């Protein structure tokens, strides 16, 4: 992994810690690629094959839409519903969050028309956000309010926002600290799709906090790891998993809060695990990524400690992963090699490893990706100051 890629991953994971305690040296920590003078040109689709791959890319430039922001982008989120004011059901919301090295940041909610392939910002749906949001997520579709979407963001606190057709209103600021008016920086969160009143957050203070957001109260708080917790993912209504700088993946059941199950540990001691994705179509499987590593680790929770597959075709460190929302065998990964790869997991991996089924080259390090649940043919990626939607 390049020095810039290393600094990116570390600064994303502990961004708020840096802002609060180390603001004077922040600029020196940011990758040079974030300076506006070095923002790359529009990325180009490629139809070339990966080495050893047997299928050409299916991602073409006529099936994409690009939004260019005046600032670097990191957090991404697809809405679970269409805009109620839209003339057609083809209009969908996509939220993007800035990553600026100062207190004042922005979140923009865009309208995406998948018929004309246009992304349209609405100034009324753009708002200030304290510090960069480390994650954005709309409330799952099952219970979206008719009056508007609910959007959650993490950073210095867990915040809830109501997104209407022509305005955004802050609803609540949730602090998980019992002893201070300030909250330890939150690295990520996940909204429970079964019990939508629940949001789980991960923090640099080694804890995971489960919120009842309807009541605005902490349901439980667990010391989940020995070091900073970098990501959290729900499986079932009362079961979640987390990854940490201590190099472990742990599963927690809220019915037995005193115990957890370690299902994977980094092969090298204390190598941090940065991201975690739980396969919602087959809860037996998870995926995680290691710091400074070009592979995606696929886990079967029935067989702890031993990965069932390792996806190793990236040429630099992997930064983001997302399972397909409607199939159990497909996953997308993106990284510092500027590539987004879509994989189809076989029933049994061959001796030569697994090749991706398609790829996309962005021309700059890809820092984030999301796979839309309501538009399963679309993936969003973030690189530099651009957010791009790709039809797969």
How would you describe this protein?
With 392 residues, the protein is mainly beta. Helix content is 6%, strand content 46%. The chain has a 4-stranded antiparallel sheet with strand order 1-28-27-26, with no helix packed on it. Strand 20 and strand 21 (309-311) form a beta hairpin. The two termini are 27 Å apart.
Features:
392 residues; 4-stranded antiparallel β-sheet; 6% helix; disordered N terminus; mainly beta
Structural class: mainly beta
- Report Rg: 20 Å
Main sheet summary: 4 strands, antiparallel
**Outline:** globular
Strand order of the largest sheet: 1-28-27-26
Q: How many individual β-strands?
A: 28
Question: Strand portion, in percent?
Answer: over 45%
Total DSSP helices: 3
Helix content: under 10%
- Span between N and C termini? 27 Å
- Can you give the mean pLDDT? 84
Unreliable stretches covering 5 or more consecutive residues: 1-58
Give a quick precis of the structure.
The protein is mainly beta and 392 residues long. Helix content is 6%, strand content 46%.
SSE diagram, text form:
Elements: H1 3-13, H2 15-22, H3 26-29, E1 64-68, E2 73-82, E3 91-98, E4 104-113, E5 118-130, E6 135-138, E7 149-154, E8 158-163, E9 168-174, E10 186-191, E11 198-203, E12 207-212, E13 217-223, E14 229-234, E15 239-244, E16 248-253, E17 256-265, E18 273-278, E19 285-290, E20 296-300, E21 309-311, E22 318-323, E23 330-335, E24 339-344, E25 358-361, E26 368-371, E27 378-383, E28 386-391
Antiparallel strand pairs: 1-28, 2-3, 3-4, 4-5, 6-7, 7-8, 8-9, 10-11, 11-12, 12-13, 14-15, 15-16, 16-17, 18-19, 19-20, 20-21, 22-23, 23-24, 24-25, 26-27, 27-28
